[in-house]
């Protein structure tokens, strides 16, 4: 996963979504709301096209699923499932781009803690790497160990379990491939002796299909070679890259 910045919709598209939500709310108040029919009608309308385009734009040039970053993002995904939270079905902040497989695994599951905080990562509102970890040896995503709790992040645990992030071979293979590519970029840069931080960052981001660059420049990633060499021997370049990522 990677952090995703949510785009602003135009006032006209925002108004169209608000109107759909108001219609759904009033149908629900009178017991007449058919969630799936209301959703289909909106999704097939021309006024919904800018919503899909904005989500595709947010997901990057390959238009990958915002949860797994591996499969093509084909569906508009409701972070809060629309059948459980119809009051959020047309809320822009609740819409993501997802793949069929993640959608199937997630279904209507949406755990919340005792304060109502979702126990699932929304990459447009939290940094996924606060809750997830990556194992470079296997390519598998796991829940991040939270030292303050002395236990893995509950949000990470639930996200991995619901989306089966640690059980999908295609995902671990894809993450391993991306990690090897990122390692190759850093190895070539450090071999030259003098590291051009701007060029390095540019190459890393271009090679990062799975959002791993943030992990590579975290406390965990910098212990792994060749990021460790970059951190220890080319510290200015490492610092410049880390700075760039924190501002991105
Ligand atoms: Zn997916």
Write the SSE topology.
Elements: H1 11-29, H2 35-43, H3 49-58, E1 75-78, E2 95-98, H4 100-106, E3 132-135, E4 140-143, E5 145-146, E6 151-152, H5 154-163, H6 169-191, H7 197-207, H8 213-216, H9 227-233, H10 235-247
Antiparallel strand pairs: 1-2, 3-4, 5-6
Helix pairs in contact: 6-7, 7-10, 9-10
Bound molecules: zinc ion (ZN).
Kindly list the characteristics that best describe this protein.
248 residues, mainly alpha, 2 domains, 8% strand, elongated, binds zinc ion
Contiguous uncertain segments of 5+ residues: none
Q: How many independent structural domains?
A: 2
Strand percent estimate:
5-15%
- The oligomeric state of the chains shown is single chain
Number of strands: 6
Mean pLDDT: 96
The coarse silhouette is: elongated
Instruction: Specify the helix fraction band.
Output: 40-55%
> Strands of the largest sheet, in order across it?
1-2
User: Structural class of the secondary elements?
Assistant: mainly alpha
Largest sheet: 2 strands, antiparallel
What's the helix count? Answer: 10
């Amino acid at each position: 996963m990677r952090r995703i910045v949510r785009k602003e919709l135009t006032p006209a598209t925002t108004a169209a979504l608000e109107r759909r939500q108001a219609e759904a709310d009033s149908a629900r108040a009178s017991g007449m709301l058919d969630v799936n029919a209301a959703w289909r009608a909106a999704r097939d309308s021309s006024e919904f096209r800018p919503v899909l385009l904005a989500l595709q734009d947010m997901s990057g040039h390959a238009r990958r699923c915002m949860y797994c970053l591996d499969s093509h993002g084909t569906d508009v995904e409701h972070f809060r499932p629309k059948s459980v939270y119809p009051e959020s079905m047309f809320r822009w902040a609740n819409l993501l781009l997802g793949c069929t497989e993640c959608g199937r695994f997630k279904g209507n599951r949406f755990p919340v803690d005792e304060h109502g905080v979702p126990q699932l990562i929304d990459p447009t509102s939290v940094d996924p790497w606060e809750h997830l970890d990556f194992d470079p040896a296997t390519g598998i995503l796991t829940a991040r160990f939270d030292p303050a709790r002395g236990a893995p992040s509950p949000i990470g645990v639930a996200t991995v379990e619901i989306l089966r992030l640690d059980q999908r071979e295609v995902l671990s293979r894809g993450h391993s491939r991306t990690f090897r590519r990122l390692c190759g970029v850093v190895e070539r840069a450090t071999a030259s002796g003098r590291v051009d931080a701007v060029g390095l960052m540019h190459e890393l981001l271009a090679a990062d299909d799975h959002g791993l660059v943030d992990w590579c420049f975290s406390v965990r990633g910098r212990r792994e070679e060749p990021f460790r060499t970059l951190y220890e021997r080319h510290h200015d370049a490492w610092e410049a890259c880390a700075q760039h990522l924190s501002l991105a």
